[in-house]
């Protein structure tokens, strides 16, 4: 058996076997904390400023040396550069040092802790994971304050990269051809480490809390990017087992990518569109390479984060126009801002909400700050002239919100027309259905819009009353819960009875055990992470619509989630024995069915 087996979050699939090379280790617990004399406070502030300046200079240098395979990810470095200038980080640390008369390292640590409290209250996992980037930036500064920097160029040959967390400079400073796999102590599914690993096709596991105790430089390590495991110094039996699994995965991945450009059409002729969820225009090449038929969800929050000024209409227009023109003639659906004041850099005054997830966010926030909303609406409308753009509003709970949002859109259209700026007057407008309230009145809301997009991640959390990131209740996060399935079907039926299209985005769309049920409901399209598209499209092509409808009928008669999970697991494996035999070797029984 392996000397150590530690678990984390799989963020980039695959298996890697190699020797460990530690890039960096965590600083927490090693940072000096001391009071300083009043006359020494300015010296500590000067040390802090110098460390921030050094970190900024190093990132600017790295930005100029980005290798071709990572050129689309310069935005990560840009975001870290903006964080280095963010008053919520540097300014807060400076004030803490001055008010408490403490050393620079301790002051910066306290500033990061305060920011972490704000981020912890954010419901959106994508936004919440940005805290990882704040920590990374802060640790770059801390290493300079401590005088600790490891020469990553010292790595000889190919290796498994282990780290507390990876900065863009760490990754780019290495020869990417030498990186066999990645494991980090910090990180989440949407962290920049995950984005880079998926871009490079490198197996990666993040959030491995005990990694730094379990492994050392030179250890033989297996990265299991399928189950999220890291094995340190495995025995011969484990090495053989994982060598076989590695070959299986590579064969499987090659086969699904080879056919990913084929349409998602069942054996008996049912056609379902398979689109992608993205947050950056740079991801479009990944969408196309994986057979995506368009973008079903473009998250617009990134452009508003980690900056000291709000983006202008021209900036947003250029971003959306580039997105639409690049993916054309494929469709792209742009979601308006899904965030609250707690995520901005102090543009809207102090934020004091006990529960931001249920507070002034998404469409509520936009309707409160109409000029900000109008700026984004005008930019989307102007980009719609390409002809393939749709727009949707998030977190709709009732009719009034839709009508107020559409009224502001009409005002924006009138302004653009008066200015002679072209736009598509027939641009489709839809809503995200992610609140139980919207489900209950779906037939009413359907009469106001051109399409629905069901956001299952939030719908499940709000319907079941659980936070899936809370380990105490995460077991209750069940996509195949009878209430969730009935809610989705109710929305689909309401949409089709009104004659509008309905799509579904969220993790359910990339779950092979859920997709046949969605097909049975006759959902028009699903939108998922680009890397999951090839496998899901092949599931669709091997299915028969009649069997999916029968499965749905059986599922809707089940009273418990346990019974549904067992039924779905048994049925799916019988229907797709060849396709899912690979999944059987990867998934534990308790994990099946989402």
Tell me what you see in this structure:
With 594 residues, this protein is α/β, with parallel strands linked by helices. It folds into 2 domains: 4-248, Glucose Oxidase, domain 1, CATH 3.50.30; 270-531, Phosphoenolpyruvate-binding domains (TIM Barrel), CATH 3.20.20. Helix content is 47%, strand content 14%. It has 24 helices and 16 strands. It has helices at 41-64, 74-84, 87-100, 104-120, 125-128, 130-146, 168-173, 192-200, 211-214, 236-258, 284-289, 313-327, 362-368, 370-383, 399-419, 436-440, 442-445, 456-464, 482-498, 515-520, 533-541, 545-556, 561-575, 577-584; strands spanning 4-7, 9-12, 15-24, 159-163, 179-184, 204-206, 220-224, 229-232, 273-278, 294-299, 331-335, 389-393, 429-433, 451-455, 501-505, 525-528. An 8-stranded mixed sheet has the order 1-8-7-3-4-5-6-2. Strand 5 (179-184), helix 8 (192-200) and strand 6 form a beta-alpha-beta unit. Helix 1 (41-64) runs antiparallel to helix 2 (74-84), helix 1 (41-64) packs antiparallel against helix 3 and helix 3 crosses helix 4. The longest helix is centred in the first third of the chain and has 24 residues, at 41-64. The chain is globular, with a radius of gyration of 25 Å. It starts with a strand and ends in a 10-residue tail after the last helix. Mean pLDDT is 85; it is low at 584-594.
